Amino acid sequence: MIRLHLVRHAHALDLADDAARPLSPRGHEQVRQLGRFLRRTGAFRPEEVWHSPLVRAEETARRLLRSLKLDVPRLVAPGLAPDDDPRPLARRLRAATHSLAIVGHEPHLSALASLLLRGRAAPPAVVMKKAAVLTLE
After folding, report:
1. Strands of 29-99, DSSP E
2. Taking the model in full, what pTM does it have?
């Protein structure tokens, strides 16, 4: 069974340079709590993690893997920016042969989840809150 985990980045600081926004102290706590929850469930076992190039997504992915003591490849993936079209990524995911986690942004993650769940991105079927995870099989 292949699982896809969609994870929205945790709370980040407000900066003029959006791409450089790191996690805030609140975001660090959110990742810690998410890691604790996922450890208890045992369901979060991706074989690879893709994240956007934005600092807050990379930091969320790195801290989450460290919290879970998971040693899996973590890669910057194209098509994960907040306003990217989710269709190219959905096509790539249909060819996946192993479980993945994608750490990204809104509104992209909700559009991607909606596209995968019902075949269209809008209106969104789900809305991803910060530091939330949605797992699909």
Report:
1. 48-51, 74-76
2. 0.95
Q: Are 34 and 85 in contact (CB under 8 A)?
A: no
Any idea which residue has 């190219």 for tokens? Answer: 88
Sheet containing strand 133-136, edge to edge, reads: 74-76, 48-51, 100-104, 4-8, 133-136
CA distance 74 to 47: 9
pLDDT digits (tens, 9 = 90+) for 10-32: 999 999 998 999 999 999 999 99
Contact 48, 23 (CB under 8 A): no
Q: Residue 122 has what pLDDT?
A: 85
Q: How many helices and strands (H and E) does the chain possess?
A: 4, 5
DSSP of 18-37, one letter per residue? GGG-PBPHHHHHHHHHHHHH
* Residue carrying the six token digits 């069974």: 1
Identify the burial level of 61 via C-beta atoms within 10 angstroms of its C-beta, where 0-12 means exposed, 13-18 middle and 19 or more buried: buried
pLDDT, tens digit, for every residue of 62-115? 999 999 999 999 999 999 999 999 999 999 998 899 999 999 999 999 999 999
